[in-house]
Specification:
about 290 residues; mainly alpha; about 75% helix; globular
Length: about 290
């Protein structure tokens, strides 16, 4: 499958935006709960997507939009809930690595849903990226081994929940592409953000946590809203330019590499040799995909 320079730049831009969002969310996590933060980000980005849709001048939604449009909203909400439950019941070190499976799931699911079939070389690249990302997400101090993570799949309830999270996010990607085909990137983004906001508000109300929406860190929240809109917008545009498996693989590879950079610059985290090797492995994987 051919990957044009425009597609590559668009996916890279989305990955950069989401990487910046990860940093901002980590800075905000101590004060704002995860569901409240999700609502603030989706609600705050909605006016930007309204402006984008107005600039396009088209508000038409095709008959084929309903199922994938509603489906991707439900999957994004389910993924966030499964993620929260996973980290609540199990150690991060034994659950986060399973998110590295997202590119594999996305690639496999795109075959029946979109007819997107990567070449053997591209599939090999995807495998290398997943292995590197899995390795990178293991604890840096060596306190958890590959064997322990594998054992955690059976013994830790959160492991299956994290795999469910990866599966939900992976299935949402091809559904997003189908929904965009029946509308437009701007209109689908607006509808999706609206749906997630409504679901988040319902959850906050049911849990009695509406007060978490009030914060004094509006500058950081504003920056996070900006990169949320930028990342989602570029991601949806990328879906019109290139195959789903590449988008998820490249975002995972670049995002993982940038996590080391941000960790060092913002949080003074040490960069160890084994993590650099993992990043190199992912780089080789991406190179194979682009070959």
């Amino acid at each position: 499958m051919e990957i044009t320079p425009l597609a590559l730049l668009t996916v890279a831009g989305a990955a950069l935006a989401y990487s910046g969002l990860d940093v901002l969310r980590k800075l905000l996590a101590e004060e704002i709960g995860p569901i409240a933060l999700l609502v603030l980000l989706t609600l705050g980005s909605m006016p930007l997507f309204v402006l984008w849709a107005l600039s396009e001048g088209s508000w038409e939604v095709g008959a084929g939009y309903l199922v994938p449009g509603v489906g991707t909203i439900a999957l994004n909400v389910a993924a966030n809930l499964a993620f929260l439950q996973a980290v609540r019941v199990s150690p991060l070190s034994l659950t986060i690595p399973y998110l590295s499976l997202t590119p594999v799931f996305a690639t496999v699911l795109a075959i029946p849903l979109l007819g997107e079939l990567p070449t053997a070389l591209q599939n090999g690249g995807i495998v290398l990226v997943v292995v590197g990302a899995f390795w990178l997400n293991l604890p840096a101090d060596g306190s958890v081994s590959l064997r322990a993570v594998g054992r955690g799949l059976v013994e830790e309830r959160g492991s299956l929940l994290m795999i469910l999270t990866a599966l939900c996010w992976s299935l949402a990607a091809p559904l997003d592409k189908l929904a965009i085909g029946a509308s437009s990137p701007a209109l689908h983004a607006l509808i999706m953000m609206t749906g997630i906001t409504v679901a988040g508000l319902v959850l906050l109300g049911a849990r009695g946590e509406m007060g978490q929406l009030v914060t004094r860190r509006w500058k950081l929240v504003g920056a996070a809203i900006g990169v949320t809109a930028l990342g989602a917008g570029l991601n949806f545009v990328a879906l019109t330019l290139v195959w789903v498996g590449f988008i998820e693989t490249f975002k995972r590879a670049l995002g993982s590499a940038l996590a080391l950079v941000w960790g060092r610059l913002v949080f003074s985290e040490e960069i160890l040799a084994n993590r650099l090797i993992a990043v190199l492995l992912m780089g080789v994987g991406v190179a194979l995909i682009l070959w």
